[in-house]
Amino acid sequence: MRGHARALALLLTLALGAGAAGCGSQSSAAQAHHGAQSSHGARSSASGHAGRVPAATVSRRPSGAPIVSEPGQLGPRWAAVATVGGAPATWIDERSGVTLLRFNQQLVHLDLHAGSSEPEGRGWGYGDQIAPSEVHRVIAAFNGGFKLDYGSVAFVSGGRVAVPLQAGLASIVTYRNGVTAIAAWHEGVPAPGLKIASVLQNLHLLVDHGVVAPTATSCVIACWGRTLGGGTDVPRSALGITGEGQLVWAAGASLSPAALGRAMAAAGVARAVELDINPEWVAGYLYVHHGGGPTAVPVMPGQLGIPGHLLAPYSRDFFTIVAN
What we know:
The chain is mainly beta. It has one domain (3-29, 36-323). The protein is 10% helix and 35% strand. Strand 8 (153-157) and strand 9 form a beta hairpin. The longest helix has 12 residues, at 3-14. The model is unreliable at 14-73 (pLDDT under 50).
């Protein structure tokens, strides 16, 4: 582990001396599979199980104990920073100026939120701040995509369309069974027979089949977003999926599209979507739970941050990672 990520892992593992407040429903036992074909059972209510899985809790270890990953799952660079029901659900890594968070979809799910201004209107399933239904189970949250008037973007949630979907665009698709898949629209998603909860589209795939898009070096500004000041190395973020169906969010304070894509590919990401860029709009948080509600911990060195840490109303769309 590199310095910042190691320090953050230690902070989170030692932050609490007691369990998290609140409970979430137990996840289905079925496994998530590769990419668009991923599917574990629909989320179950707690009444259908003998016990309830605790809310997202910070994994704790004795002070000075080594940071280890789950045997046979992740390499030694990854440190577990959050658990669900005692099982590791979230890991952190830092490499080449890129902070990465990895999420186990058998224990957590992704929710797409509508901001107060992007998209416009009220009544979305998940609105401009972490919802009461999520607040005791939220593990992480991070920025969404480009502004919806940029072009080559789309936003759909709960059957409601803010910007129509386009064939070929990189798509983050969450199905109603709680599983998220990432692929190009009509070229891997949607999966036949699965009902859709939400879709966010943003440009074309930054990583596909584990390979960084050639335009990441040949067409930086036109293909991967206008930057403040016109430079190529700016704060950038992305969301990807591994061959095993785990989600990976990545961001850094000074990255080209190629550098971001290479870091994700090196972390085992099969397909990835670039999310927002530029200083004001790239931020990620992990949440420490206690009796008074969650406290946000920034994960990316140098991030300016989002006022309210997504626990207060925010104008732009964003994602949460929530315990099942």
